[in-house]
Amino acid sequence: MAVIEFHHVEKIYTGQTRAIQDFSLTINESEFMVLVGPSGCGKSTLMRMLAGLEQCSAGEIILDGQVVNDWTPQQRNVAMVFQNYALYPHMTVRGNLEFPLRMRKLSRREIDSRVGEAEELLGLTGLLERKPKQLSGGQRQRVAMGRALVRDPSVFLMDEPLSNLDARLRVQIRTEIGALQRRMQKTTLYVTHDQVEAMTLGDRVCVLNEGILQQVASPMELYQKPANIFVASFLGSPGMNLFSASCLDVGSDTSTFRLGLQSIKLHGQASYQENLAPAQSYVIGIRPEDLSLKGTDEDDRIHLRLIVESVESLGHEHLVYGNLLGYEASKISSEIENTLKPVTKTGRLTVRLPAHAQVSIGSEITLTARPEQVHLFALNGLRIGKHSDHHSVSMS
User: What single DSSP character describes residue 268?
Assistant: First the structure.
């Protein structure tokens, strides 16, 4: 087991391409940390630097209190599982598992013991004499994990290990990886672009975008209290609905906002008030699953009128798409437009409704949500209001 520390790490490639910018993060002993973000955001670069396969341009990488920037991959005692398995095709499963142990010149007894443990732990019984081409994708992934496991590393690194598997197998292997890590209690860094993997596996999740750390928190905190607009829009499927809105009034415990021709009141959110000003523009976010069809006795909720454009029936639920009635996006300066890219310009909204909901295309419906389910962001992209302590960065 080990503690991993990144201190102001940067990576600049030839041509001044800055892949990682001033990245600092501590991964605790036995923790399962997930790095998540869109393709090209620098996730794999960070993992390769930790493994010693890439050199830092600046900053320090520390393992158990020792700076390892100049250590070889072999000296770092980390094991890496790649997305393409990286198995030796001419070797049997047994040969693949034994290979790193033979390179370390362990005794035959120790090699047999470790391979036997991996065989049992990963469900490889009966497969040891097969070659990789005779295995399914899930079996190959287990062998790749086994080859890393037999080394008894202090750190386990996984780089998109499920990306080559079909959807059903991904769920199965994902569950197995989580259970395996809990049994091993190994410090683990897991890289993925799949938010479902991130939310279900990680003790904490680190969200990365364009080489910049956006937020580090537990999966539930990321979902409920995103630090900025990028995190809010990236996590969740479908993503959070984001609208520009003008603040009409700020009271002691209630604020009023206008979205096009509609207005909503947010009350019981005293932590917002000191950060709001009338006549200023903000961004309001509401997750699709936090909206519902208007019922009775819901005066304490916010109400939004929507013209339905399309409905996707998924069997257990409907995804309803439409436009807010009378919505027109506030004018946003070109300097900050990139920060607010996820904010709708048309008033388009997505809502997740139960399968029994009766909704027809072209109709007008009224949606409701509880005020505490509404997220507020400033035009610099940052969340407004008090939230738990977590690492976040400015998006400006």
Answer: S
